[in-house]
Amino acid sequence: VQLVESGGGLVQPGGSLRLSCATSGFTFTNYDMRWSRQAPGKERELVAYISNRGGTTTYHASVKGRFTISRDNAQNTVFLQMNSLKPEDTAVYYCSSYIDFRQYWGQGTQVTVSS
Question: How much is the average pLDDT of 65-87?
């Protein structure tokens, strides 16, 4: 199982970024996917969830209305579109999935929101 995030970077407040998580090694369409983040000195928190077919999505209250999770089951990839970014969104962002009773994580991608 491999999860590889990309798309992070430095962006000004109010800007946008689109994160991608390319996956391999498992049947992507069978599993729900998640985006989490961890800021320095803080615990990792779940940001967004999407069901295996994309019919159900949920969001942390702090990002609702600004972030959108989506997936392309043909490309085995999950996305996180982040708009109206705030300095408090600064964190390392990880994608993950529970597969056969084990949670797999990517290596993370840094998002920094600063002027």
Answer: 98
